[in-house]
Amino acid sequence: MIKVGDTLPAATLMEFMDVEGEGCSLGPNPVDVTAATAGKTIALFALPGAFTPTCSAKHVPGYISSFDELKSAGVDEIWCVSVNDAFVMGAWARDQKSVGKVRMLADGDAAFTKATGLTLDLTGKGLGLRSNRYSMLVKDGKIESLNIEGPGKFEVSDAATLLAQVKA
Length: 168
Prior knowledge:
- The chain is of the alpha+beta class.
- The protein has one domain (12-167): Glutaredoxin.
- It is built from 6 helices and 9 strands, in the order E-E-H-E-H-H-E-H-E-H-E-E-E-E-H.
- The protein has helices at 33-37, 53-65, 67-72, 86-96, 111-116, 159-167; strands at 12-17, 27-32, 41-47, 77-82, 102-106, 119-122, 128-131, 134-139, 142-148.
- The strands form 2 sheets. The protein has a 7-stranded mixed beta sheet. A two-stranded antiparallel sheet has the order 6-7.
- A hairpin with a 2-residue loop joins strand 8 and strand 9.
- The longest helix is centred in the middle third of the chain and has 13 residues, at 53-65.
- It starts with 11 loop residues before the first strand and ends with a helix.
- 39% of the residues are buried.
């Protein structure tokens, strides 16, 4: 399992784009984690699934409402990672009105999630292999802080906790 001080695993996430621009075409576009984090400070949070209750009602909205504070504290980008496909993450971004604030990144085959060691097996609940709920502060690809939730919890991966760590 990854830990503070580790470099994020090399992986490719996918991001659905509704508007063409800045070298991104419409539809799913690859995001090379190593290249996309180089020289940047990223507030990254991951969760079990798009459109799920806690994720939609608390986790994503907290980061959207904390966008200005996180940016003012030095965060370049906010990433939400989930084991869903890019089309689902794009629809969820529209539903959550996160465009321009939180990048909704799909880990469709769970390659990134498996590489972090932060998987959550929800097979018995009909959801298959998912990501555990966590947040991390990443600077130039290196993990500066990591907040992993216990099973069924939402206590340490919220935006307020990560914001306090960014400001520390």
